[in-house]
Amino acid sequence: MTTPLFSYRKFWAECFGPARELPMSRAEMDALGWDSCDIIIVTGDAYVDHPSFGMAVIGRLLEAQGFRVGIIAQPDWTSTTDFQALGAPNLFFGVAAGNMDSMINRYTADRKRRNDDAYTPGNTGDKRPDRAVIVYSQRLREAYRQVPLVIGSIEASLRRIAHYDYWSDRVRRSILVDSSADLLLYGNAERAIVALAHRMAAGEAIHTIRDLRGTAFVRKRIPDDWRVIDSTSIDVVGPVSAPADPYAAAASTACASTAAAADTAVPITLVGDVAQRDTQAVIRIPGFEQVRDDPALYAHASRVLHKETNPHNARPLVQSHGDREVWLNAPPLPLATTELDQVFELPYSRLPHSAYGDARIVAYEMIRHSVNIMRGCFGGCTFCSITEHEGRIIQNRSEDSIIREIEQIRDTSPAFTGVISDLGGPTANMWRLACNSPEVEAKCRKLSCVFPGICKNLNTDQTPLIGLYRRARKVQGVKKVLIASGLRYDLAVRTPDYVRELVTHHVGGYLKIAPEHTEDAPLSKMMKPGIGSYEEFRAMFEEYSRAAGKKQYLIPYFIAAHPGTSDKDMMQLALWLKRNKYRADQVQTFYPSPMATATAMYHSGKNPLKRVTRTSDSMPTVKGLPQRRLHKAFLRYHDPENWPILRQALKKMGRADLIGSGSKHLVPARQPAKQHPVVAPSRGTRPFATQHNGVDGVPARRKRASKR
Description:
Layout: H1 26-32, E1 39-43, H2 54-64, E2 69-73, E3 92-96, H3 102-106, H4 132-143, E4 149-152, H5 153-157, E5 163-165, E6 170-172, H6 175-179, E7 183-185, H7 190-201, E8 215-219, E9 227-230, H8 253-259, H9 271-277, E10 281-284, H10 288-293, H11 295-307, E11 317-321, E12 324-328, H12 337-344, H13 362-367, E13 370-372, E14 374-375, H14 386-390, E15 395-396, H15 399-412, E16 419-420, E17 422-424, H16 438-443, H17 463-473, E18 480-481, H18 489-492, H19 496-505, E19 510-516, H20 520-526, H21 531-547, E20 553-560, H22 567-579, E21 582-584, E22 588-589, H23 597-604, H24 625-635, H25 643-652, E23 705-707
Parallel strand pairs: 1-2, 1-3, 3-4, 4-7, 9-10, 10-11, 13-17, 16-18, 19-20, 20-22
Antiparallel strand pairs: 5-6, 7-8, 8-12, 11-12, 14-15, 21-23
Helix pairs in contact: 11-23, 17-19, 19-21, 22-24
């Protein structure tokens, strides 16, 4: 039975009441009358008291439970001084890298250091360390060895098991091991952190709290009353080159006997029935040393983990790291609408902390007048981290709560000009979309509700969203409501009236859309629909724009160098772009983020969307810098700087016929005497995906393409 989030008896410190802003200094604590903090959150972001920033959500939620919460934002990690600014907390430290993974925040897809940081005052790029969760945890252990340490955020969430690390080009251990944390909270952690705080306040030691959903921890051994299921018995990898047990001492006899029968293995989709009748079962996935040394086992472990993400049927997972066991409990249950409403309506000031003065925080400026209406995404795109972090089940806010937030922005923000910059979430048009059958949803292990086609059990009616848009537009003082979140166009076309409403009233001249590619081979590895779905949406968009008497443009985004993409695929995409007169000013190269399915493809050369065996066909992966640059060059076929590399590639591919000055040619035969820089469009744009809502935290950092 799930305890409602706001039903706990409040901690005694409730008597202090809510703070105008959570304290970041001892002087602020003194002004509040606090002698100590119960919980201190250490974060890699500047502290902005807004529901789009993770530390504010968790801090205000714990405050609402009666706890005194302090914030240490962007501490100097070269010593313990900043980490001791508020003293030791009575319960625990909570450590987060921030709304973004610190490595993705600091480095480009080509591993080049960024000079900026949108989550730092002044947009400077030197206020957080690499692998911030580990570094902050180390400093806290030096300063307060005995104080319990809890880690979370997108960085910890996506590193909860052994994972491929793009920046070092190797498989790293679970972040739990490297940080020496007592507990890891993954996903949206409201349920877990509230339960943890109350139980510790009641006297329970953190090392005895082992039953919270959405948590991971290290233990010495598997309890005797748990039955261990070897993952290869439900999704057989196949024999090693020598007919030996791939799990050494950890494997079961049943696993060894089935390993030789890979071609007749039981599909992993059958394990749901076992989960229902065996509540004390844990799945052992290949250990750190095994996935480190065997890419096929790495892909297999990734596949099993992603199949065990439905909170209604997922079982715990365990992965050995030497003589220790990293244990992952089942994912957290989604918040009910009433609970999510309460989370978003906590007493946020909606401002950066006053200590920052007039310093600009770019990420805040981007989202301060946007409203998050939901969480989660059932798209399952393999390159995206939303699903791994937030889950596939959509968590919806009520219409009334959304309208109240719009009114609060209108009434309290001095910078509000009447424009709501976004009414969205991870995917703008998934609000209130869900499986039509709770029974089916509870058993389902599909990675996506919309790939390879839209599930027949999925409700795709976006009519309620039309009603929300209309009501938002009618709020007094609101002049315009824009939709800036990513849009799932294959869903949008299922409700033509939604597309009409969107195009007529909620597009600010440009609408970003993400077909990602035009060719079936890479699209199938991304779990994205074919380009025909995009063409159908584009036809609707143009028709309704004409009917509204507006000149509006679609801004399509594409990914270069995604696993499964060949040079020929990129050439075909470039030809499609030229036929459609699109010129991408800046493009996105595939970025292997930890734990993503596409990252498992990149590292292993295997396709974990299917059963992985050592004899499975290898898939093309674009790893070398020259080939990654070539794929990026195809997207910018119009840039003279790319013509030499493209001419060379086209000749090598036997497509010299595409070199010339005609309309059917891709690049000219000659280099211009003087190259002029390509001028970017004057209109600004925001990063794609869910950067605005601060929940998933991993922006794609794509820029706009302009249609010439």
